[in-house]
Write a structure and sequence with these properties.
By secondary structure, this protein is an alpha+beta fold. Helices cover 29% and strands 22% of the residues. It has 6 helices and 8 strands, in the order ααβββαβαββββαα. Strands 1, 2, 3, 4, 5, 6, 7 and 8 form an 8-stranded mixed sheet that branches. Helix 1 (3-14) packs antiparallel against helix 2. The chain starts with a helix and ends in a 10-residue tail after the last helix.
């Protein structure tokens, strides 16, 4: 069974990540039990020996009355980070998602990284974040060109609720002011922390 190996990889990938609650692997396990889990969008990268070295998961979300996808998490073993494994996984995930009829991949992450993969401000497409964060961090990738019409607030599956982590490892674009924004914001809004489906992906890949 490959799932325990995936969860172990995710746990290892985040074990030294600052500002992580180190329970991303638990999220993966919970999402796999969701009725809307899509096995084709649970993707692994392996080395020449067949060891799993990277993983990406896209999960179904709602945007208005449309089913779209949230990219979370993306995880790569530390010794393979910075070698393009994460990028390859994400690009392949885009291809599979489009073949399944989805129109957008949506995430909260480091624009310095994800803009290189052609992610743009989600608000540009009419996609609204369910929480108050700087516009440039809530991003979407249109799987079609021209982008399909969409409008609405993102609603995440309940498995995301309560799992809030901020992983700033190697996110050079995030200066002190942005870090303080995030920490102060979530410290002051415990209700949001408990009830909103919120998942911050600022990864070290």
């Amino acid at each position: 069974m490959v799932y325990p190996a995936i969860e172990k990889l995710v746990e290892i990938a985040f074990q030294n990540a600052p500002h992580s609650e180190h329970n991303e692997h638990i999220l993966v396990a919970k999402l796999r039990q969701n009725a809307d889990f899509i096995p084709a969008l649970s993707l692994c990268a392996k080395d020449e020996q067949g060891q799993i070295i990277g993983y990406v998961l896209l999960s179904k979300i709602m945007v208005g009355n449309q089913n779209e996808l949230a990219l979370a998490p993306i995880a790569v073993l530390p010794e393979y980070q910075g070698q393009g494994v994460g990028k390859a996984l994400i690009l392949h995930a885009h291809t599979v998602a489009k073949s399944l009829g989805f129109s957008y991949s949506i995430l909260l992450g480091d624009p310095n990284y994800y803009q290189k993969l052609d992610y743009q401000n989600a608000s540009k497409f009419g996609i609204v974040s369910p929480f108050d964060v700087p516009d440039e961090y809530f991003m979407a990738y249109p799987l079609y060109s021209p982008p399909k019409k969409i409008a609405g607030i993102v609603v995440y599956p309940p498995e995301f609720g309560g799992l809030i982590y901020l992983n700033f490892h190697n996110c050079k674009i995030l200066g002190k002011s942005h870090r303080l924004f995030f920490f102060q914001h979530f410290k002051n809004f415990p209700k949001m922390k408990n009830n909103l489906s919120f998942f911050a992906i600022l990864l070290h890949i």
